[in-house]
């Protein structure tokens, strides 16, 4: 698993672990969010999920369970329970991990934390000790016990705990033409071929062209790779009838989205917040790529204020 890391000078603050969504990789956090939070004293780590970014290639899409297993292997190396920050499908994966780590008997983040310490591997995450990356097969990573749950969970432009099926229906009811276009662009991965489509799906109209083209470079590398999540099996893991369960203990959750998001609508943001008993933050005009769009600093500031209260 590729992990990009940035040191933080305040050891009293929890580590932050950033989890990207479909079509992205650890790189998307390294542009804005990691420098911002590292400068604020937080130890930061951004992962590239299986088959994405510079992580080991795979031949099939992942599942929430497989991604949670991969995350467990890395999180067990950290010095303290982290705050997980998930975007889009990365938010759904983070929610799933929160539930599964609790089911495994990891307990609350206030419990005793025993990080796994092996040998440092500078090729994967130079600021955290851990095992060298195992080659991922069809059945997932080598087994690792899940570490304790996080200090908190930040969900940015996240798919809701019921998955994306209801959102797709809402988009269809609001604007059939645009909904069909966006669905086609996702299936055909047009956003990875055409910068104009990429802007329309992920970014605001006022994003400078040079920024768009810089982001489009790594986004276009998604062509030829398997989907980050297998949508054919997603309904078995997260759906309206079977939402991802909450951990059986209090968990601080931060939920933020934008009303200019073409992928996760405001209803989905509010659904996620209500599910966890959180107050939603909806940023006017913000597009889907919260961590890269023109209002990224507003999102970072709101998240920093929440982190300060943990």
Overview of the molecule:
The chain is of the alpha/beta class. It has a single domain, classed as 3-Layer(aba) Sandwich (Rossmann fold), CATH 3.40.50.1820. It has 11 helices and 7 strands. A 7-stranded mixed beta sheet has the order 1-3-2-4-5-6-7, sandwiched between helices. Strand 6, helix 10 and strand 7 form a beta-alpha-beta unit. The longest helix has 15 residues. About 13% of the residues have low confidence.
Features:
310 residues; alpha/beta; single chain
User: What number of structural domains do the residues give?
Assistant: 1
Task: Provide the gyration radius in Å.
Answer: 18 Å
Spatial separation of the terminal alpha carbons: 29 Å
Low-confidence runs (pLDDT<50, min 5 residues)?
A: 106-145
- Based on the coordinates given, report the CATH architecture: 3-Layer(aba) Sandwich
Quick structural gist:
By secondary structure, this protein is of the alpha/beta class.
